[in-house]
Amino acid sequence: MGRLCSVINCSTRNSKVTPERITLFSLPKDDYLKSQWINVVCAVNNRETNVKFVCAKHFKTEDIKRTYYGSENLGSEVNNADVE
């Protein structure tokens, strides 16, 4: 079973059978940032949500630092404009 974006109506999955390659970020370890992510996703979903992953589609491009090893999220909030 692959990973699934926690934002409602987002069909982004990361599995071996899905050809689409979109980065899914797990919740930050920092408690403050983690609570911000959860609050934004729950507000966008308009309900309590068990947030595990948020895909790159919901972040501004400048909030994602691309490195040799992959993507690293530097932003603190989910981009609400991209989830509606």
Automatic annotation (TrEMBL):
NAD is among the record's keywords: no
Q: List the GO molecular function terms.
A: DNA binding; zinc ion binding
Q: Which domain of life is it from?
A: Eukaryota
* Keyword flag Flavoprotein: no
The record's listing under InterPro entries reads: THAP_Znf (IPR006612), THAP_Znf_sf (IPR038441)
Check the record and name the PROSITE patterns matching this protein. Answer: ZF_THAP
Per UniProt, residues of the THAP-type domain are 1-84
A Pfam family found in this protein is: THAP
Q: Which UniProt keywords apply?
A: DNA-binding, Metal-binding, Zinc, Zinc-finger
The identity of this protein, by name, is: THAP-type domain-containing protein
Which organism is this protein's natural source? Macrosiphum euphorbiae
Q: List the taxonomic lineage.
A: Eukaryota, Metazoa, Ecdysozoa, Arthropoda, Hexapoda
